[in-house]
């Protein structure tokens, strides 16, 4: 059984969902350390002159991701941050092929207040899973507490959910302890993800946008 593991990013890119689709069980690494420079509270959408970051205002503290609080009264250009994000999606995708199919659902999500970043991210991830017809079983790493970290923690999580193979992202080759996986008897697999080309809004294709870009523009997994 193949297990994928990933932090609960904000509006994740398409490779996140590709890894989930290729896994039998997907572990949301919700008790990993929050990294303000990563994609846990921000991601990019395509706009007329390139791309734009959408960043959730959070209390940037040295805590696990599932303990990071959203600053709900934060304003961006005289708009509540969540309304600003939704308006940016509207302004840049309202002519996209599948905009009408999904914008109401996004509006409901952004219409709520969230105490924790994790709650918001999982609402969006679940919404995109349903939209992409991904039905992989999801569990949270916090359900299997441990003091281990790095490769050992990943191995423990795979074992905890009954897996015999771990599907790493492509960059895992640079930091995973391959020998530790071999000794544990768990097969180490590396995700092969070639970003698809599809028709985007505006001229020029930019890969690795939030998967909301591919969803609204009508891309579907094979």
Helix content: 25-40%
Can you count the helices? 7
Q: Reading side by side through the largest sheet, how are the strands ordered? A: 7-2-1-8-9
Write the element-wise H/E pattern from the N-terminal end onward.
Answer: EHEEEEEHHHEHEHEH
Protein name: WbqC-like protein family protein
Pfam families: WbqC
Organism: Methanolobus profundi
Question: Would you give an account of this structure?
Answer:
By secondary structure, the protein is of the alpha/beta class. The protein has one domain (2-216). The protein contains 7 helices and 9 strands, in the order βαβββββαααβαβαβα. It has helices at 14-21, 81-93, 99-110, 117-131, 150-160, 178-184, 211-216; strands at residues 2-6, 25-28, 42-47, 50-55, 75-76, 79-80, 137-140, 165-168, 187-190. The strands form 3 sheets. It has a 5-stranded parallel β-sheet with strand order 7-2-1-8-9, with helices on both faces. A two-stranded antiparallel sheet has the order 3-4. A two-stranded antiparallel sheet has the order 5-6. Helix 2 (81-93) runs antiparallel to helix 3 (99-110) and helix 3 packs antiparallel against helix 4 (117-131). The chain starts with a strand and ends in a 6-residue tail after the last helix. The mean pLDDT is 97.
């Amino acid at each position: 059984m193949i297990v994928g593991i990933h932090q609960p990013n904000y509006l994740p890119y398409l490779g996140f969902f590709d890894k989930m689709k290729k896994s039998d069980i997907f572990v949301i690494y919700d008790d990993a350390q929050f990294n303000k420079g990563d994609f846990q509270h921000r991601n990019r959408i395509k706009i007329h002159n390139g791309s734009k970051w959408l960043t959730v205002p959070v209390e940037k503290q040295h805590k696990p991701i599932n303990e990071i609080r959203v600053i709900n009264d934060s304003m961006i250009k005289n708009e509540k941050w969540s309304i600003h994000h939704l308006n940016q999606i509207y302004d840049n995708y309202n002519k996209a092929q599948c905009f009408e199919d999904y914008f109401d659902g996004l509006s409901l999500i952004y219409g709520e207040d969230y105490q924790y970043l994790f709650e918001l991210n999982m609402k969006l991830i679940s919404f995109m899973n349903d939209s992409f017809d991904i039905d992989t079983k999801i569990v949270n790493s916090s359900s299997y507490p441990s003091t281990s970290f790095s490769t050992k923690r990943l191995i423990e999580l795979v074992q905890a959910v009954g897996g015999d193979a771990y599907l790493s992202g492509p960059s895992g080759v640079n930091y995973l302890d391959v020998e530790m996986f071999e000794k544990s008897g768990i097969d180490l697999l590396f995700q092969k993800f070639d970003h698809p080309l599809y028709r985007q809004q505006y001229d020029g294709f930019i890969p690795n946008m939030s998967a909301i870009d591919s969803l609204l523009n009508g891309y579907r997994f094979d």
